[in-house]
Design goal:
InterPro entries: Regulatory_HutP, Regulatory_HutP_sf. By secondary structure, the protein is α+β, with helices and mostly antiparallel strands. 49% of the residues lie in helices and 33% in strands. The chain has a single domain, classed as 3-Layer(aba) Sandwich (Hut operon positive regulatory protein HutP). A four-stranded antiparallel beta sheet has the order 1-2-3-4, sandwiched between helices.
Length: 138
């Protein structure tokens, strides 16, 4: 499989995982396992600025828990970097607001993608945003 195709498939899987509810998440995990894709997802919420560190930590913990990554500095750094990139894409919209949503992580071979799906705002006046980051690890 070409690298650009693998990158696209991993990114797509991460986005889909970030958009699922619990039932859909379990079904997608089974489907992706059959396609040799490792995936994880985890919910989060809180005030954006104070939550950035927690979102990165949750992405790493979820990826390790679901065996998407190994317990190495390289793998953890890749997830942290991809998550930070995904967060940076929505920072302008989210800063100063409460956010809630889900993190999706996907990996096939050397390719790791992290997607964050956010509802940003107050009460029912939410803006929706998705950020996506990708890293390649040996």
């Amino acid at each position: 499989m070409k690298d650009d195709q693998a990158s696209k498939e991993v990114a797509t899987a991460a986005i889909k995982m970030s958009l699922t509810d619990r039932k859909e998440e379990k079904e997608l995990k089974k489907e992706y396992a059959a396609e040799d894709l490792k995936v994880a997802a985890v919910d989060f919420g809180g005030e954006f600025t104070s939550s950035v560190k927690k979102v990165i930590e949750r992405a790493i913990v979820a990826a390790k828990r679901e065996s998407v990554i190994k317990d190495t500095h390289t793998d953890q750094g890749a997830v942290a970097g991809a998550t930070k990139e995904a967060l940076s894409q929505i920072t302008d919209k989210a800063i100063g607001f409460n956010v809630g949503g889900k993190i999706g992580v996907a990996r096939r071979g050397d390719h790791i993608s992290v997607a964050v799906f956010f509802a940003i705002g107050l009460l029912h006046l939410n803006e929706m945003a998705i950020g996506l980051g990708h890293r390649a690890v040996p």
